[in-house]
Design brief:
By secondary structure, the chain is an alpha+beta fold. It contains eight helices and 15 strands. The structure holds 2,5-anhydro-1,6-di-O-phosphono-D-glucitol (AHG) and manganese (II) ion (2 copies).
Length: 325
């Protein structure tokens, strides 16, 4: 079976990008090792600190962030990194050609209860090689990404990767290597499975309220089919399900905090997941247009996210167009 290293060797991507991907894959193996030990690894529980989002940091958020930051900043091809757990961007090698943004541990609320969590990453080209990076260098729309992916720490540790030529999946074997299990995965166009945090319903805009109300009416409603619902509270696990068997994932705009359009972050959640889903034939939207067309203004900016099976994403956009919202 093809391992990650050999699979990348057979592509025509830049060798220095391969080295960056190798570094991420190896570091995620270490993070997975810590998760495997559970309470024995002393990674459960919370720190007394909060991150830039005002969220309490879990111990493993801090550990995973430190591991990725250290490994990437020691890779000479990395010009800088930005993380959910770091207020500012951090400069790396002057000769680096790539910028890496990451969510070191996605689904932190699931760590202590032993439910799937993950690491999400996005790789952008450096616009100003040879000089120290600034936040401005990172503020590129998602369609500029040269690679994106995630590692899901579930019953199996799974790496899912795109370099702009489809989406492939790898599983981490007992021998410590990632082996390709699926090539060119495709998200089914239609679905009967949706994922949204229903407890936020009263905060959504009217078209989202209308869409979910129609979904809940099943075969008797205007959509005319019965839906099933899932909510894992780890975006990585939800997107993995969608890449595997289709579905629709939504964390839409809500009115809880006026200055925050949604919960998820554009640069290390919205964009990399959009790149993967679109490369697998699915669709992604803010409800008003493509997530990857947004010109970022801040590294930690938030974005409404609707992604998955094309037919359903397009249906939600129509609900918004018809209401004018
Ligand atoms: P993170 O743990 O990196 O802050 O991200 C959690 C995100 C995402 O993974 C998940 O879909 C969502 O937050 C869960 O939100 P709720 O708490 O509303 O369920
Ligand atoms: Mn996250
Ligand atoms: Mn996180």
């Amino acid at each position: 079976m093809l391992n990650l290293h050999d699979a990348l060797k057979h592509t025509d991507i830049d060798p220095s990008l391969k080295e960056v991907l190798d570094t991420i894959a190896a570091t995620c193996k270490s993070i997975g090792g810590k998760l495997k030990g559970g309470a024995l690894s002393s990674v459960y529980g919370s720190e007394s600190s909060e991150n830039i989002q005002g969220e309490v940091q879990k111990k493993l958020d801090v550990v995973a962030n430190a591991l990725l930051k250290h490994a990437l900043l020691n890779n000479r091809h990395v010009a800088g990194v930005a993380s959910e757990e770091e207020e500012d961007v951090i400069g790396g090698s002057d000769e680096g050609r790539y910028l890496v943004t990451f969510d070191p541990l996605d689904g932190s609320s699931n760590i202590d209860i032993n439910v799937s969590v993950g690491t999400i990453f996005s790789i952008l080209p450096t616009k100003t090689p040879g000089s120290q990076v600034t936040m401005q260098d990172f503020l590129q729309p998602g369609h500029q990404q040269v690679a994106a992916g995630y590692v899901l720490y579930g019953p199996a540790i799974t790496l899912v990767l795109t370099t702009g030529n489809g989406v492939d999946m790898y599983a981490l074997d007992y021998d410590g290597d990632y082996y390709q299990t699926h090539k060119q995965i495709q998200v089914p166009k239609a679905t009967q499975e949706f994922a949204i945090n229903m407890s936020n319903q009263r905060f959504w805009e009217a078209p989202m309220q209308d869409y979910i109300a129609d979904v809940l009416q099943g075969e008797e409603g205007p959509i005319g089919k019965r839906f099933n619902m899932r909510w894992i509270a780890s975006m990585v696990a939800e997107i993995h399900r969608i890449l595997t068997r289709g579905g629709i994932f939504m964390y839409p705009w809500d009115s809880r905090e006026a200055d925050k359009p949604g919960k998820l972050r554009l640069m290390y959640e919205g964009n990399p997941m959009s790149f993967l889903v679109e490369q697998a034939g699915g669709a992604c939207s803010t409800s008003q247009g493509s997530i990857m067309d947004i010109q970022p203004e801040q590294i930690h900016q938030r974005v409404p996210v609707i992604m998955g099976s094309k037919e359903e994403v397009e249906r939600i956009e129509v609900y918004h167009q018809q209401s004018g919202d």
